[in-house]
Specification:
Elements lengths: L9 H6 L3 H17 L4 E5 L2 E5 L3 E7 L3 E5 L6 H7 L9 E4 L6 H28 L1
Antiparallel strand pairs: 1-2, 2-3, 3-4, 4-5
């Protein structure tokens, strides 16, 4: 992907890639959208992201994989399921030459929605306690 100008939106980001990668990115996008229907699509750090109260997930296409960020924690069974995809910093790398694990991505996003809601609720409680 050319780094010259940031993409205006998710469609512009996806359009920068070859058709086969665009198809995978659209699948990932639709999977995230279904798992987080109240989230907004945004571009952050020049990557597609979904924001609810805070950023739920970012995703990006690279030469050989689709990256999913940030690192996932808080569910031991899910952490075990994603271990084979963990990159050096804990971010997930889904190889482009394998079927995209959309069910796993859905579970990751569902966990992030719960975590995001819990964080927002805790913040709201702290504010109301003042």
């Amino acid at each position: 992907m050319a780094k010259s100008t940031p993409p205006a939106d998710m469609d512009a980001y996806i359009a920068r890639f070859p058709a086969d990668v665009q198809a995978v990115l659209q699948q990932v996008r639709q999977t995230i959208r279904a798992a987080a229907p109240d989230a907004r699509e945004v571009i952050s750090y020049q990557m597609p992201a979904f924001r609810q109260h805070g950023i739920l997930v970012f995703f990006a296409a690279w030469k050989n994989h689709i990256g999913l960020y940030p690192p996932i924690s808080g569910d031991k069974a899910l952490e075990k399921a994603i271990a084979r995809y963990a990159g050096p910093k804990g971010n997930l790398q889904f190889p482009l030459d394998e079927p995209m694990p959309l069910g796993l991505i859905r579970k990751i996003v569902q966990l992030r929605v719960k975590q995001d809601q819990a964080k927002a609720d805790a913040k709201r409680r702290r504010k109301s306690a003042r």
